[in-house]
Amino acid sequence: MTKELANPKALYSAVSDEVDSVLIGNEQIIEGLTVALLTRGHVLLEGVPGVAKTTIANLFASATGLDVSRIQMTPDLLPADVTGTSVYREQTGEFSLQRGPIFTNLVVADEINRATPKTQSAFLEAMQEGSVTIEGETLSLPSVFMVIATQNPIEMEGTHGLPEAQRDRFQLKLTVDLPDEESEIALMNRFDGTPELGPNDISAVVSEEDITAARETVTEVYVDESIKSYIREIIAATRESPALEYGASPRATLLFMQTAKARAAIHGRDYVISDDVKALAESVLAHRVALSTDAELSDQSAREIIEEIVETVAAPGGDPEPQSPEATVSSDGGTRVSSGRE
């Protein structure tokens, strides 16, 4: 472990720069992946075919130095193909446990919504409890464990919508958009001379020990009571919105706060501001809510509704009152606690 990379900002910068040496224009996606990694979360990447969803996941795995396994999700995939099963050994006349590909640090579940809901559910225990039960035996997963699932938009042929319980296990849903003109031209120039450029061409720039230490730093980030109330008001608005059949759960409330702390940390702050909350609201909440019938008939999207809610709920005004003699009020509406690291 290096002391510098135990700092979330330095860790994020190192990973982002390494990934950027292959792909261009995915800074927000890498930020979201880093936020999830530092808060023990999982990420759903959505985008049309060809926007490099799987490549982004593999590049992130390579840059973080984590052991990775890729599972191609197909309609005929069985839950045991993910978690593992007991296999009879003729040589010994006994059954032995055959662990599945989920037993690793980072699982890339490619095109997860092409698998059946039954197979998708094989991830539930792993994502929530950090363990897998095989024929009555519960086995622990690594302390650093993360699922990055990719999916095509649900309107595309051959896809299954993820069950509500499955969606709720993903801390963030990030949309990989088509690149703008400048980024696409830069991408062509980069791959013109090196068409085989890919995840094998980048190095691990952080270690598992760096990630564990950076996670501890994130837990120390201060969240003022006014920011907690702001998060709660946004969550409450999703539950009260006539455009939504149901809103975000208490799990979403806690994950919302945790992701805001991680974003603050990777931007070099040890306190959360309202901009952290605003930046993450759609990614944390849009996939957890269900549209009302009227909203569906009006072709509204969950992201549009969350965006409207964030615009409607007033952010904390003025400076919050310090919570202790050691606290100092920042100019951007957050309260900073002196941690001796300045």
Automatic annotation (TrEMBL):
InterPro entries: AAA+_ATPase, ATPase_AAA-3, CbbQ/NirQ/NorQ/GpvN, ChlI/MoxR_AAA_lid, P-loop_NTPase. Residues 325-342 have a biased composition (Polar residues). SUPFAM superfamilies: P-loop containing nucleoside triphosphate hydrolases. The keyword Amino-acid biosynthesis does not apply. GO terms for molecular function: ATP binding; ATP hydrolysis activity. Residues 39-180 form the AAA+ ATPase domain. Gene3D superfamilies: Magnesium chelatase subunit I, C-Terminal domain (1.10.8.80), P-loop containing nucleotide triphosphate hydrolases (3.40.50.300). Residues 313-342 are annotated as: Disordered. The keyword ATP-binding applies. Pfam families: AAA_3, AAA_lid_2. Keywords: ATP-binding, Nucleotide-binding. This is MoxR family ATPase. It comes from Halorussus gelatinilyticus.
